[in-house]
Description:
Layout: H1 7-19, H2 23-37, H3 42-47, H4 55-68, E1 77-83, E2 86-87, E3 90-91, E4 94-100, H5 130-139, H6 149-168, H7 171-175, E5 180-187, E6 192-199
Helix pairs in contact: 1-6, 2-6, 4-6, 5-6
Amino acid sequence: MDNQLGIKDYYFVRDVVESTSNVRIGMEQLLDYCKMKSPDPVWATIRNFEFEGEIPKLELWLLNVLSSEPPSNDIKAFWFGLFNPILDNETSCGFYICGSTNFASYDRTSDWACWQKDTYLPTQRYADSRILREIYSLVDNNNNVSNFAEFILALGYTCLAVKYICRSINPNLILGDRKRRDIAVGFDSGDSIILEGVER
């Protein structure tokens, strides 16, 4: 499946992510948008998810990664990549962190984040997101919504979660000795959103 959003969908997700730091409010706006595109009972089910309840676990994961495997000083940006792992013989949705010595803020496809010899690849890079798994399981086989729902909701949720966490944790863990590190979230083979970077 092509991980490219329609241009209107892409800008809506980006605008929601930029306009709020509240994960619940952001997800409700995204769900309202999905309901407008295609009315379906699945939106009410997803709306009942405890989106913010997962944030402390994801925050602890990122703290552990950056504390135990800090990136080298030449890493300019972090990439939080969405992908589709196979879990228990079924396709799912998850994300991971890596870091790049390259960064291009103008690149919607984020080719700069492709793995290279000098990519930061911590061994604990894969996050465990129950929310992403449950969203994927509900929308993947729903013919009314599967062509857009995963991309809008998975990209939106991961952006909102990463944005919140990166504002909450000690900036020294994100920055190391650098004055700034940029942050992007996106599909490994599709759209991405550049979040506000972290500066000293």
